[in-house]
Specification:
11% strand; N-(1-d-carboxylethyl)-l-norvaline Dehydrogenase, domain 2; five-stranded parallel beta sheet; single chain; binds D-mannonic acid
Length: 490
């Protein structure tokens, strides 16, 4: 491997075993700034953009920005932004080198360069995949005004740290220069993600006390979107396998599944690539698609992850391949489907059939620990929202609350039957305090739900159901709790 040339523009014509960009990368300009340039973005949006570049839409190259670590820039910078996606299923890997990432920036190293790029009038869309926790929402879903990074950004608008600081700072510069604003496209798994980011950005600007709010409210579009593609973390074995097949060293290829989906609200006053030519669905209202994806895919994923961790399954395919867990997921789906809008033409049978196949993909090796991350930030929209809707109609929530109980149990198993740092959560410090003072299921559930902000409407019923499950998990293990839940009224 040490002998191999590094992937890069200069050796693209020698790359074998992979499709390569069929367009002149040097003619591409950067019309999109993406904040949060992780594996998901690289396997999803960057691929759709690569398709558009291949069709001659030169103005939509991507500037990839990391808000935290330099890892992606360090890996892809020396490759001119090129990297490989490996689309994996039982029949092997299909490799494709993606050329849409034109440059990479690391915000903490030089926030000014990022602000200046975002303020460049050639940039017409700013897209985001910064993960749930980066939106710094409080327990009520509003901006956490006391968060140290928000406090910092308000006092240091030229050196922001948060996504809101960058958006507000760049929009202020564009307004001052008389340039039209960019469109903000949130691609994180939040409900009504465009509207949510708009609201949080306006709250941030309100704290900053300038008059940007009216400009943002009137001029800036925040379309909502539903994004979907399963992207397990890349391993060293993946790196070696891909580099071997390419005949060139790729320091950070991305692994993914054949399936990909993107549903986007049609609201781009500053223009957009013709994504619809490459399989993106442009719609008036994304909400039904978002709800279906968050509740049926992501909610089931969390269940598969936490129950899988408690029963010794390292990957989604292993966990979902366990008939006990598979049965749980099917009952969970039956519980959740009635919460989805009925008049939106959603085909939930086809959707769950496709999920069954996707979760069974043996080649992906999607780790349960990866999905287990940040549960306190994920469960509100994946699980708690559905439970509230069920309770309004006086319907049982046994399977939903089993996910919440399994989350608490799996968090508590770290340092016991699971390695201490097996996964992390922004709530870890509070969780550790709670686990140190009580072992009693009902007390645990009450304290953890309160700390995570799960305790609005429907609190008593949710806590009661989760406590019952947690009691059984402690007494008989997760398998016992799944069987007991299966006996409950559906
Ligand atoms: C997963 C998602 O890690 C997780 O929490 O549920 O990343 C999931 O794989 C994607 O949303 C699929 O589109």
């Amino acid at each position: 491997m040490g002998q191999q040339a590094r992937l890069g523009d200069a050796i693209l014509d020698r790359v074998r075993g992979a499709a390569t960009p069929a367009y002149d990368r040097s003619a591409v300009s950067e019309g999109i700034v993406h904040l949060g340039v992780g594996a998901f973005h690289r396997a999803h949006q960057a691929v759709y953009v690569d398709d558009c570049l291949g069709a001659g839409e030169h103005g939509w190259g991507i500037t990839g920005v990391s808000l935290r670590s330099p890892d992606t820039r360090d890996a892809l910078g020396p490759q001119g932004g090129l990297y490989t996606i490996a689309v994996r299923d039982g029949s092997g890997d299909a490799l494709r080198v993606i050329g849409s990432m034109k440059s990479l920036l690391v915000a903490p190293e030089d926030p000014e360069v990022v602000l200046a790029r975002m303020a460049d009038p050639r940039v017409r869309i700013v897209t985001l995949t910064v993960t749930e926790k980066a939106y710094l929402r409080d327990a009520n879903g509003e901006l956490d005004a006391g968060h140290p990074d928000i406090v910092w950004d308000i006092a240091n608008s030229e050196k922001p740290r948060t996504v809101f600081g960058f958006l507000a700072g760049a929009l202020a510069r564009r307004r001052a220069a008389g340039f039209p604003p960019f469109t903000v496209l949130c691609c994180d798994n939040l409900p009504a993600n465009g509207e949510t980011v708009r609201r949080l950005t306006l709250q941030f600007v309100g704290l900053a006390g300038d008059d940007l709010a009216a400009f943002i409210a009137k001029e800036v579009a925040f379309p909502s979107t539903m994004v979907d593609r399963i992207v397990p973390a890349t391993t060293d074995a993946d790196r070696a396998r891909v580099s071997e097949a390419l005949g060139a060293e790729d320091a950070w290829p991305v692994m993914t599944e054949p399936f990909m989906q993107w549903v986007v609200e049609e609201n781009f006053p500053a223009g957009r690539p013709r994504w619809e030519k490459f399989g993106v669905t442009m719609v008036e209202d994304v909400a039904p698609f978002e709800d279906m994806k968050l509740r049926l895919l992501n909610g089931a994923h969390s269940g598969i992850a936490y129950l899988g961790l408690l029963t010794g399954h390292p990957t989604v395919a292993d966990s979902f391949g366990d008939p006990l867990i598979r049965g749980f997921v099917e009952r969970y789906w039956r519980e959740v489907i009635p919460t989805l809008p009925k008049d939106a033409g959603l085909d939930t049978d086809a959707y769950t059939a496709a999920l069954t196949e996707r979760f069974s993909n043996p080649a992906l090796r999607h780790r349960t620990a990866q999905i287990a991350m940040d549960g306190s930030q994920k469960l509100p929209q994946r699980i708690i929202a559905s439970a509230r809707l069920r309770l309004k109609e006086d319907r049982p929530i046994a399977n939903l609350m089993l996910v919440a109980a399994a989350w608490i149990a799996a968090c508590r198993e770290r340092g016991r039957s699971l390695p201490a740092g097996h996964f992390t959560d922004p709530l870890d410090a509070k969780l550790a305090d709670i686990f140190a003072v009580t072992d009693e299921p009902a007390e645990l559930v009450r304290a953890v739900f309160a700390a995570a902000g799960f305790s609005a409407e429907g609190k008593e019923a949710m806590e009661a159901a989760a406590s019952k499950h947690l009691t059984i998990i402690f007494e008989k293990g997760a398998a016992g709790a799944i069987s007991a839940a299966a006996e409950e009224r559906a």
